[in-house]
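Below is one protein, fold included:
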Amino acid sequence: MTSVLLAAIVSLVVSIMFTPVAIRVLRRRGIGQEIRIDGPQTHLSKQGTPTMGGAVIVLSTVLGYAGAQVYLLTQPGRGPTATGFLLLYVMVGLGFVGFLDDFIKIRQKRNLGLSKTAKLVGQLVVGVSFAVLALQFERDGLTPASTSLSFVRDIPEITFGAVLFVVFAYLMIAGFSNALNLTDGLDGLAAGSSVMVFGSYVVISFWQFGHLCARQELSGCYEVRDPLDITLVAASALGACFGFLWWNANPARIIMGDTGSLALGGLMAAMAVLTKTELLLVVLGGLFVVETLSVATQILVFKATRKRVFRMAPIHHHFELAGWTEMTVVVRFWIITGLAVAFGLGLFYADWLAAADIQ
């Protein structure tokens, strides 16, 4: 437990202290956000707000994990694992794709960065390589990921096979990284919601660590490789998002940009794959799913009927244009995320009670 707290504290301190440094550096270099002119007019005041703050989140998460590992190296049989490195690989890899997207926006002075094709190629490289590597590094009969579909644990009756698993993992990583990207449209919305989702994965992975089949052959145990390392990464991401939120809350002094949103969304999906809670992430990250569905619905209906379902998509802009203040939208969407996370954790615990046959 000490290592988990250490990971969260180190990442929190690094994030909350280095974010204002990043703000000053970005301002001096004129690296600011470009705002859509067809969006809510209240957002025009955010033009030029320092962006690419997600780089601080990524750095803080990596340093939080490293700090915890330095402590664990003092204990016999403990140290970094392939699982931890795989999670950080996805985060850093997609963070780099997002960085390129942000850089092009700033360089070209426009709201569009990488082309859709270029962004998908970047996500494809990171997602596919992660999926392939996650089926390697076998230890005690377990690899970091399995080829079975999972909800709160693997569903043995539904197995993909290696090739289909790689496709599925890629779609999850690309889907959730884009979902976070769509959600990151209001001050503090993506960062605050991510805090709660990563908090849920701290609970889930640490619970799995305490109930590993490798340690105790009991009903309801979990066959997950390196759950403690997953906990450390989740705690590091939690602390990093908390620290960043201090400066990103309305009115935001810095924006995470695609650098942060792609990294955080990809990390969530990778955690779901490695904790074998893939479908549960749809519940825990319900807000991100709704944001994505609102965009898809808007596009499909408009193409079919030339009419709009929402005033503007993603859906948080719809409520802004309906008269809600930005802070009202953010807080109410945080509440929705909190409820989704509570429900998801309830499903996880209920499954354990049923599997362990506890009345």
